[in-house]
Specification:
A: 337 residues; B: alpha/beta; 6-stranded mixed sheet; 4-stranded antiparallel sheet; 9 helices
């Protein structure tokens, strides 16, 4: 298959349609595709849908917000991952390389430890992610070395380790019957608690960050070159790097705040997208967004239906992601050297 | 147009590499920079490109300080050909050359028809149009060097600066790249390149600049500067001239 924008978009859009159908239709309460369209149409046109109230509630209040959240989080993490892989010139980088996830984890765990409400926990997680990346960036800029990218990654690893032990300490101190299960559950990632109210803040933050990354995609090819080459080609690498890091951090922190830590999506999906479109970021980013959204739709549907209890998302993405990634490493190594 | 610097000090924040450097390059002229490893060639090149601020003095482009010219404007005047590298991602050759058009588009712009046309023209000019859809990581080192040159030409610059363009190339490709450098100067561009082989300078450069320990030890017309004595002093090693009735070449002694 010739790799192109067209084939990439086709494949990802087909998967997205399948993902939406899968996510809306599968579950304990039976819903038909006709019901979904009828309810959505009635929302748009303002006429009664003719679907039973129970089905309408399932579609609009139970599955709807969760479907939207799964799509958004998957798309955002994938775009952020693809952007970071270019920025850090390393295909093994994921969007939490600068500590966004570990910062958000510490924020959320602190929130749970202090028995705060759900909204406050999400706020803590979001702020934790932003503060962690800001700290990493500040340290990276303070330690001026020849290769700003290398310093950033090293600072990210160090701060990530520090935050990780912070999380460990809180877990150690937390009430083992009450708080510890909540912490563990949160750290494993889940969309089960997504409500329509969460979506408002999540949608705006993720939409802004993702839009910025998508808009900058025509400059990302150049940003994946060595620093001096990019500048000789006319790109102010410093401001551009800050913009990309800020946008990617915004979406990562917002995603983690809403859904807990969902690893692997931001690492694996860009690679799948790259195998469809090739490495050109202008084509890669839109396809990665759609593909990532579809991927998490499938995963989340499995998470809520495969067993009698919810399977944590972080665990499922790793179960699906790791074998896939090994296969990818074996077959796709030509896309990077 | 002229790139010029008078009494320049070059170096990094924590290390002074050279001082008292005066150099100039006009359009239509090729200038070779020779010197031992660690002599400051790369540092000088980066300073002249505006990638590294001078420690003292000023690099000027047509009389205007380089630091006062925007990074985009600079990229439209001076093209840079780095040493050949493989790159992280397997972009197609066409995508790589299109990156040379970055300074012509706005922040969010995607490459337009004209950009594709310029990229295709530069690939054709270097005779590598057939590589356009090949992956940059899969072509040979010599081809990669030509692709990077095509990318610099896609910037439609008045000057091209090349960092060791013949290093790591096989004998045949070294000749090919040198012929292209000659053609560029012939087409009216100012060309500055560094090299470890005096014969490459003899072959293509109008003028030569010898750089040792951060200072210019000799500068001028190629045939005047590239003598056995100058080269032996420059490298601190014996040099064997090979002379026939028309030309001279040098072997390391």
């Amino acid at each position: 298959m010739r790799r192109s924008m067209f084939s990439g978009l086709t494949v990802s859009l087909v998967l997205l349609a399948a993902g939406f159908a899968f996510a809306f239709l599968i579950g304990r309460f039976p819903v038909s595709l006709g019901d979904v369209f009828a309810v959505l149409w009635s929302k748009i046109s303002g006429t009664p849908s003719g679907v039973s109230q129970a089905a309408e509630a399932v579609i609009l209040q139970v599955r709807g917000p969760r479907v939207l959240a799964a799509f958004l989080v998957g798309a955002a993490l994938s775009v952020a991952g693809a952007a970071f892989q270019g920025l850090f010139r390393n295909p093994l980088v994921s969007p939490d390389i600068l500590g966004a996830s570990s910062g958000a984890a510490l924020g959320a765990v602190l929130g749970i430890y202090f028995s705060l409400g759900v909204f406050a926990i999400q706020g803590f997680a979001f702020l934790g992610g932003l503060v962690a990346v800001a700290a990493v960036y500040a340290i990276g800029s303070a330690l001026r070395m020849r290769d700003p990218i290398l310093v950033l990654v090293l600072a990210g690893v160090v701060i990530g380790a520090l935050l990780g032990s912070g999380v460990g300490l809180i877990k150690y101190l937390a009430d083992p019957y009450n708080q510890l299960p909540a912490i563990t559950f949160w750290l494993l990632g889940s969309l089960a608690a997504t409500s329509a109210a969460d979506l408002v803040s999540l949608v705006s933050l993720i939409a802004i960050g993702t839009a910025v990354l998508l808009l900058l995609r025509h400059r990302m090819n150049v940003m994946s070159l060595p620093e001096e080459e990019a500048r000789a080609l006319g790109v102010s690498t410093g401001p551009m790097r800050i913009a990309i890091v800020a946008a990617a951090t915004l979406v990562t922190a917002a995603s983690v705040a809403a859904a807990g830590i969902i690893g692997w999506v931001g690492l694996v999906v860009p690679h799948i997208a790259r195998s469809l479109t090739g490495p050109d970021f202008a084509k890669l980013l839109p396809v990665a967004a759609i593909l990532g959204g579809s991927f998490l739709l499938f995963i989340d549907t499995i998470a809520r239906t495969a067993a009698s209890i919810e399977i944590p998302l972080g665990i499922l993405t790793a179960f699906v992601g790791t074998p896939f990634f090994i296969w990818l490493l074996a077959s796709m190594q030509k896309d990077w050297s | 147009m002229t790139i010029a610097a008078e009494n320049l000090s070059i170096g990094y924040r924590d290390r002074l590499v050279g001082s008292g450097v005066s150099i100039s390059l006009r359009e239509g002229e090729s200038l070779a920079l020779l010197g031992p490893n660690g002599g400051g060639k790369t540092t000088l090149l980066k300073t002249l490109l505006g990638l590294l601020p001078p420690r003292k003095g000023e690099v000027t482009l047509n009389g205007k300080a380089l630091s006062a010219i925007s990074i985009r404007e600079r990229a439209r005047r001076i093209g840079y050909v780095p040493q050949v590298h493989t790159g992280t991602f397997a972009f197609t050759v066409e995508t790589v050359v299109l990156m040379g058009r970055t300074a012509y588009g706005s922040l969010f712009a995607k490459p337009g028809k004209e950009d594709f046309a310029v990229a295709a023209k530069m690939l054709a000019r270097l005779g590598i149009s057939h590589l356009a859809q090949r992956s940059y990581t899969e072509i040979s080192g010599g081809e990669r060097q030509l692709v990077l040159l095509a990318r610099a030409l896609a910037q439609e610059p008045r000057f091209v600066v090349l960092d060791e363009p013949t290093a790591s190339l096989d004998f045949g490709n070294q000749g090919k790249v040198m012929r292209e450098i000659e053609a560029l100067a012939g087409a009216g561009l100012g060309v500055l390149f560094t090299t470890h082989d005096p014969n490459h300078a003899l072959r293509t450069a109008h003028r030569v600049c010898l750089l040792r320990e951060g200072a210019i030890v000799a500068e001028g017309k190629t045939s005047d500067v590239l003598t056995r004595e100058n080269l032996e002093a420059l490298y601190g090693a014996k040099v064997l001239p090979v002379i026939d009735s028309r030309q001279v070449a040098f072997l390391p002694g």
